[in-house]
Amino acid sequence: MLLFLTLSLIFPPQHPSVDLTILPQSSVMGVRGLQGFVGSTCPHICTVVNFKDLAEHHRSRHPGCTPSVVVDAMCCLRYWYTPESWICGGQWREYFSALQDFVRAFTAVGIKLIFFFDGMVEQGKRDEWVKRRLKNNREISRIFQYIKSHKEQPGRNMFFIPSGLAVFTRFALKTLGQETVCSLQEADYEVASYGMQHNCLGILGEDTDYLIYDTCPYFSIRELCLQTLDTVMLCREKLCESLGLGLADLPLLACLLGNDIIPEGMFESFRYKCLCSYTSVKENFDKKGNIVLAVSDHIAKVLRLHQGEKKLEEILPLGPNKALFYKGVASYLLPGQKSPWFFQKPKDTITLDRQVISMSSDPESKQEVPMCTDSESKQEVPMHMNPESKQEIPTCTDPESKQEVPMCTHPEMKQKLPMGTDPEFKLEASICTNPEIQPEDPMNMGPETKQLVTMVSDPEILKVARTHHVQAESYLVYNVMSSGEVDCSNTLEDELDQALPSQAFIYRPVRQRVYFLLLGDCKDGTSTCPAVKEWFVYPGNPLRHPDLVRPLQMTVPGGTPSLKILWLSQEPGIQARRLDTLLACFNLSSSKEELQAVENPFKALCCLLIYLFVQVDTLCLEDLHAFIAQALCLQGKSTAQLVNLQVCLTGIYCWKIPTSGQLLMDP
């Protein structure tokens, strides 16, 4: 993945046909308890449908309009990854073949697919992200225990998605000519918005949040039969009928049950009280099913009596979590939508701590909701806004971390941003707001900021980076330049193996040089460069706060070029400068002559292998042979031939190689 970060930074997208075989290489999402409730208590909301029939019906109703399906790609990775071998880094060609089959099946019936990938982790969901990463650590630990005990790969019941699969899937789908989008926030909002605004057939995924959004129909990827294109449609209207609720009540229900924004324990006592007073319980309903029914009953029979007359904090035990709860409800409001649960005063405003916030996606609406403020500075927290819909959603700082992000209001103004509590990095970074930058979302969806708070002040280069990000043509580049915060999820690393350092540390020097290129303007070394917040998962990291990583100055022959030169220049010789910069990122400028003698497809591989073996002294000759063999010996092999190859785990090195540098290699 790091190589892709570096390549996408230095070389502008060329949309080549990518052969990735030569390179080295969850939990139920959404509303708590809703998936189980639907399966056990409300199976009638699930209807078997056929995509071919749906497409024909759509064409008859909308002549000349191509039926389209929005795909939440992050939900589909487990469905797409069918190869049996996964412990050694993954089977790229088999996986690519599965993606081809998936695309062909829908193309054959005239359905267009639009794939969305998560492009960032929202601050309000960072705690949930950390919780899931720590859970994944425990699963990975059990995988290595099994391998050591049984000397073989675990079964599918212990399956863990190969490292980097989501990133590489973007490139694979683009190679297949598919429209691929990387989100500027959590992808589910953008998926739901796109589906609603473009009159799509529906959303294909596996996330109960899609039952809450008032958008196009929601189809299950888990139930999809690719041969027949049959799947299950989950009907939110039937769900509402079963619960005695309206569509506009579902966001409130989701927040009271708990979701990615509202911790499950926040309203545990409230749910228990609802359960105790609920009198229509049937013996065959499980406890979680009872809770969903009990909370729904309370909304319908108690809360609705005060709807529009009282504030939510007056009828619910919100306590200090008012702003977070409002944010949770508002997160389900798509452009043009508003919630009847937001109380309106005669003058259409409510205030908290003297702050006023609009909470509707409807430009005509005057609904208001409290915003988070810092009790000492009284600074307003910036709002995510869609320029057309005027929807605003408050972004709250973590009450435990006490971190604040002050905003500049003029490109020349700079303020200090506390970067964390690590005693080793007591530094402050400058951030700037560019009023000239009007975020231009190619997909026209999701809330955006009025003023973009960034780590880089050049609006032209930010626009280029943002476009590359949304079009899934770069990896982490825009995250660094915009927020100065990046993350890396779990990789298959044995926490008990002290001989092999974590990939997070092996590749950190390269990332630091990349940060130096991206953040620039470090005229006196790196002392004036802001630190980058890294949420990287590695053994022993409790993820209580990000690591603060300083950019590392590097030497490029002829001088370090600016991003404008690297990305936008058409001058003769620019490719040579880009290659010089790439080699400098890996500290391999002295090896340029030897690398130029290697054929183009293998230059990147050699660059990465040289770097690995310099950084990791515990790698041996057999490791090198394994990498090179996979690059050279498997070319020309068909997918069918690769399927029949046997994976050997007798050599421990084959699954100990640093996974961030691997790329779904055939064994």
Would you kindly provide a written description of the structure presented here, covering whatever features stand out?
The two termini are 19 Å apart. Helix content is 37%, strand content 10%. The strands form four sheets. Strands 1-7-6-5-2-3-4 form a seven-stranded mixed beta sheet, with helices on both faces. It has a three-stranded antiparallel beta sheet with strand order 10-11-12, with no helix packed on it. Helix 1 runs parallel beside helix 19, helix 11 crosses helix 13 (287-301) and helix 12 packs across helix 13.
List the helices and strands and how they pair.
Elements: H1 2-10, H2 34-40, E1 46-50, H3 51-61, E2 68-72, H4 73-80, H5 92-107, E3 112-117, H6 126-150, H7 165-175, E4 179-182, H8 187-197, E5 202-205, H9 209-212, E6 218-220, E7 230-234, H10 236-243, H11 250-257, H12 268-277, H13 287-301, H14 312-315, H15 322-330, E8 383-385, E9 392-394, E10 415-418, E11 428-434, E12 452-454, H16 459-470, H17 477-482, E13 485-488, H18 503-506, H19 508-519, E14 532-536, E15 547-549, H20 563-568, H21 574-585, H22 592-596, H23 600-615, H24 621-632, H25 639-643, H26 653-656
Parallel strand pairs: 2-3, 2-5, 3-4, 5-6, 13-14
Antiparallel strand pairs: 1-7, 6-7, 8-9, 10-11, 11-12, 14-15
